[in-house]
Amino acid sequence: MTCKPQGLQALFGGTFDPIHYGHLRPVEALAKQVGLQRVILLPNHVPPHRPQPQASPMQRLEMVQLAVQNNPLFTIDTRELQKSTPSYTLETLSELREELGSTQPLAFIIGQDSLLSINTWYGWEQLLDKCHLLVCARPGYSTHFADPQMQQWLNQHQTDNPRQLSLQAKGLIFIADTPLVNISATEIRQKLSSGDSCNDLIPNAVLEYIQAHHLYQE
């Protein structure tokens, strides 16, 4: 069944170990910039490219729920948490595209660092057959590929007009002018382990959950 398009939607995946303002604030700015109607947060269960999370899947999901409980922009998709095998972006996007239909504008949000290494992803050549790519700036990362063929691929698909993202279902790359929020979950876990304050880095409800469950207290 094909659903009627409902405006531009975007998927934002991560381990969220824990979720923090470095995740949320650039995405909120991006939503305003390109007219996102909905951001679907996608917590990973077994991320293929990075160390396994410290918090359990259920704890990470509960922290994500707390972080966005009063923000209508965000919804949460738990399909990857229900898998016991590595979650590949292409497979998840293929499932979602099947559910939403071929005409629904759909995007996947990544950081500049992920864009520059995207040719290491499983099935990366097919990603733009499923969605647009929305790229958030990251401190210290180039805006160009060193590989001329990858730069040609970027040039071929890049648009500077955010309105185009809502007019077609997939196939474009938009490099957004989002705030550079230099926060990493690794640094936050280190701060929490050392007893340092993270009040300005994590939503209060998430911080209270971390404290109540004694997370990241190595």
Polypeptide structure, described:
This is Probable nicotinate-nucleotide adenylyltransferase. Residues 11-191 form the Cytidyltransferase-like domain. One of its GO terms (biological process) is NAD+ biosynthetic process. Catalyzes the reversible adenylation of nicotinate mononucleotide (NaMN) to nicotinic acid adenine dinucleotide (NaAD). It catalyses: nicotinate beta-D-ribonucleotide + ATP + H(+) = deamido-NAD(+) + diphosphate. With 218 residues, the protein is α/β, with parallel strands linked by helices. The protein has a single domain (9-213), classed as HUPs (Rossmann fold, 3-Layer(aba) Sandwich). Helices cover 34% and strands 13% of the residues. The protein contains eight helices and six strands, in the order βαβαβαβαβααβαα. The chain has helices at residues 21-34, 57-67, 89-100, 112-116, 148-157, 164-167, 185-194, 204-212, and strands at 9-14, 38-43, 74-76, 106-111, 132-136, 173-175. Strands 3-2-1-4-5-6 form a six-stranded parallel sheet. The longest helix is centred in the first third of the chain and has 14 residues, at 21-34. The protein is globular and about 50 Å long. It starts with 8 loop residues before the first strand and ends in a 6-residue tail after the last helix. 37% of the residues are buried.
